[in-house]
Amino acid sequence: MVDEEKRTNEALDASKKYNTVVEEANDYIEHFDILETITNVGNDEVFTPRKTCDMILDSLPEEVWHNPLYKWLNPATKNGIFEREIALRLDKGLENVIADKEERRKHILQNMIFSIGQTKFTSNVARRTLYYCSQANRKCDGLKAPDGHYVNGYSIGNGSWFDDEEGNIKTPCTDHDFQDSSGHKMPASCKGDERKKYKCQYCGIDGASNYNDANQREKYAYEFIHVDKGLSLSIHLAKRFFGGNRNMKFDIIIGNPPYQLSTGGGQAQAKPIYHKFIEQAISLNPKYLCMITPSRWFAGGIGLDDFRAKTLKDRHFRKIVDYVQSEVCFPGVVIAGGVNYFLWERDYEGDCEYTYIDQGKKDTAIRKLNEFDIFIRSNKAVKIIHKIQKQDKSQLSSIMSSLSPFGLNSNFRGHEEKKPGDYRVLSSDGWNYTSKSEVKIGNEYINKYKVAISYATSGSGATADKDGQRKVIAKLFVLKPGEVCTFTYFLAGKFDTEEEANNCLKYLSTKFVRYLLFQALSGIHVSKEKFAFVPLIDFKQSVSDEELYEKYKLDKDEISLIENSIKEMN
User: Fold this and answer.
1) Which tens digit of pLDDT belongs to each residue from 332-358?
2) Which of 65, 314, 473, 552 is 20–30 Å from 413 (CA)?
């Protein structure tokens, strides 16, 4: 018979977050939590710290903690932190609704909290966190060690609350769906590079991807996004959790979805997928949706342009909390462009309460998200841009070239010895020469003066030094007639005189311009579109920051903001 006094491993008896003896020895660490000591593992399994989880849960309205009928779903659980913290809050919030402690906790875990593991591994970790055992129906076998502790673990409710090992935390069960451009599925006999022409219709990886390696235990075919959205997804989830009862719906969807998948190859790139989780969740029409994701989608980019346009028009976003420094939410993890969490509310329609946090400084404003084509993160910057556009709606981007203005790849270096008729070429390694035959495009720039702007920012547009200042633009050069550049740079202007080009370079070097450029950045790359908020001026004369501040009637606080956030540039 199980000793009731010893059976105190209930996940909801969490006044000490079920501290082990080891944890108790570390009580000097504030709110020590074993989940925060687990190293991030696998493809994109960045575990959510408890403090970040709490911030996200705090964004939900108080009423969610007092409604015993709500059903919660985490569509890509990792360490079970969301489930655990939700359960703790519900246990407190439902005390007046379900008075009996055992009945209340059983109701919460059986009828309210549901999850799909991101992988097989994280499914087990999440069950261990919430049910205190990776097997939801495991009973105590009574076997004790000499010190009186039970040798083998057992689940909450002594394994009697669930009929199977998974409980309400399901191990992912879907596969990738590989098809070619004609819709033909990849045959089992397909081998080697031939598999590359087949793409997964849901996440976009190709059939030769490491994610499709038969020797790899995990597939990373995330279940929530490998089912068609809307009705098909609703039917799928009903089968998974409710015995096929399609009348059962999820009221609250919450979590930290995986952010990206590598597309592989020599020039491996990361394919964003977090937006797919948001789209899938919205298609289920829950009452509340709350997730944390990278903030890169604010500026669009690979696979994100349509999502950005649609999302910024969506009037159901009640709150967005945006951190420029991702390390605040994920200590030790640098995510270019920062991260944000949001509250989407089905029954709300209006402007968004947007909070911008940079270097610990918080600024909140009620805003229309799609006021500009590019989302401006800083509320104070919005006011500055309003002042500028009131006087001047012209854009510096109108005289910018596209990327790779001369068709030379970033790894192109040319040759050291100049030959008759050669152009001088600027690459990331400095100056060399190239024959005219190598330059396929950009003839309109070749015999003009122009300014070369580095494509990559200084480290990252979001990276500040210890004083909170950013360089934003890494390098600027004036290119003379007969000088070209590789993909590492793109161009501003095509001028008849060197003086105009020098004036343009000086303008680009001002803190004023680089501050406005930074407002459009969400990663480490610069392009012509990012200069949409920078006004186009006459380059017959040079201008200084002070003259620009006066021209656009910036006040002392606005000037101080620019001066203190942007580095001097040589």
Assistant:
1) 888 888 999 999 999 999 999 999 999
2) 473
- Beta-bridge partner residues of 41: 45
d(CA 401, CA 491): 5
Helix axes 511-518, 379-391, angle to 10 degrees: 120
Residue 226 carries which side chain, given as an amino acid letter? H
| Nearest-angstrom CA–CA distance, 203 and 200 | 6
- List CB contacts of 435: < 8 A, sequence separation 6 or more: 419, 421, 422, 423
- Cα–Cα distance measured from residue 34 to residue 132, given in angstroms and rounded to the nearest whole number: 13
**What is the SS3 assignment for 269?**
coil
pLDDT one-digit tens code per residue, 266-288:
334 678 999 999 999 999 999 99
- How far the first Cα of the chain sits from its last, in Å, is 78
Q: Measured between alpha carbons, how far is 393 from 518 in angstroms, rounded to an integer?
A: 18
Beta-bridged to residue 320, according to DSSP, are 342, 354
Q: Please calculate the CA angle 83-85-91 and round it to the nearest 5 degrees.
A: 100
Task: Give me the amino acid identity at 204.
Answer: G
- H or E segment at 253? strand 252-255
For the chain, helix, strand, coil in percent to 5 are 30, 20, 50
Whole-angstrom distance, CA of residue 482 vs CA of residue 473: 24
Dihedral in degrees, nearest 10, Cα atoms 25, 29, 30, 32: -60
Taking CA atoms, 344 is separated from 59, 62, 329, 369, in Å, by 10, 15, 20, 13
Per-residue confidence (pLDDT) for residue 416, from 0 to 100: 93
What single string gives the DSSP state of each residue in 95-129? Answer: TTTS-SHHHHHHHHHHHTEEEEESSHHHHHHHHHH
Q: What is the CA radius of gyration of the chain?
A: 28
How far apart CA 30 and CA 24 sit, in angstroms, is 11
What are the distances in angstroms from CA 470 to CA 236, 321, 476, 552?
A: 48, 22, 16, 22
Partners of 495 in the beta sheet?
449
Helix (H) or strand (E) holding 477: strand 476-479
- How is residue 324 written in tokens? 């420029």
Could you tell me how far CA 111 lies from the centroid of its own chain?
A: 31
* In the block, residue with structure tokens 């096929």: 244
Strands 339-345 and 288-294, sheet pairing: antiparallel
Bridge-based pairing state of the strands 449-454 and 352-358: unpaired
Phi, psi for residue 402 in degrees, rounded to 5: -75, 175
Write out the two tokens for 478. 């004036």
The answer to whether 415 touches 434, Cβ cutoff 8 Å, is yes
State yes or no: pLDDT of 359 exceeds 90: no
